[in-house]
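@here heads up, posting the sequence + SMILES for the flavin mononucleotide run so it's all in one place. Ping me if the SMILES looks off, I pulled it from an old spreadsheet.
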Amino acid sequence: MADEIGLFEAIHTMRAMRRLKPDPVPDALVRRIIEAGLCAPSGGDVQHWRFVVVKDPETKRKIQIPYRRALDKLLPRYRAAPPPPGKTEAQKLRMLAAVEYLTNHLHEAPVLIVCCLVGDFAKSVGLEKMSGASIYPAVQNMLLAARALGLGATLTTRHLLYEKEVNEALGMPDNAESFAVIPIGYPAGRFGPVTREPVAKVVFLDRWNNRWE
Ligand SMILES: Cc1cc2nc3c(=O)[nH]c(=O)nc-3n(C[C@H](O)[C@H](O)[C@H](O)COP(=O)(O)O)c2cc1C
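bot reply: prediction finished. Complex structure tokens:
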């Protein structure tokens, strides 16, 4: 599509878009987002991923309720935490307000994509640390695809505190696990550049702490 943006612009402006309009998103766009996800690598190319596109209002609500409860549990920690690197307390509070907004309105997003693995291969071979590593690249591809299509999205995982409730709401089998819920919709906020720590602070050459510049 002529109005799509380039890859680097998408990468540099893909903020967590937590304020979404409830307007429906055409299935054709959701399909393109998922097809982008399916281009991601998976360990051994096993492609054990499954994606549940949730549009049913009652099912979305069954996901939102535990998602809200999880925020109630975590909010005191979020409030007490220092601001993210390079950000002020005021910026942190604005982010928390957006987090709270998404939490209260999750079920109003036109589409939720629940990203799952059937039998996490990494875990099955004792590589606990790699758990989820075969689904998160697909998640990132989908976030970038949404951005390229002018849609807002956020990687969320907080439902995992009460994942059984979510699994039940979706009728998932015992050998399937969810790893992320991506709410997608037309953005109510504006896209803009992400702010992150500079290369000089986080990259080393050859040895830890040897600055790369
Ligand atoms: C593993 C992981 C889990 C996350 N879970 C949530 C979540 O449950 N809810 C949420 O609103 N954002 C969640 N986020 C989004 C981060 O909060 C967001 O990427 C970060 O604040 C940077 O925001 P920005 O990209 O808009 O600068 C998660 C991000 C990651 C990587």
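MO: Residues 15-16, 18, 99, 102, 154-158, 194 surround flavin mononucleotide (CB under 6 Å).
MO: One more: Residues 7-188 form a domain with the NADH Oxidase fold (CATH 3.40.109.10).
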